[in-house]
Amino acid sequence: MSNSTRATEKEARALATFTRLSKTAGKIRRSVYSGLSDTRLTESQVNVLELLYKLGPLPQKDIAKNLSVTGGNITMVVDNLQKRDLVGRKRWQEDRRVVHVALTDLGTETIESYIPLHLKKVLGAFDGLEPSEQEQLQTLCDKLVEALN
Question: What domains are there in the chain, each with its CATH number?
Answer without folding.
Answer: 9-148 (1.10.10.10)
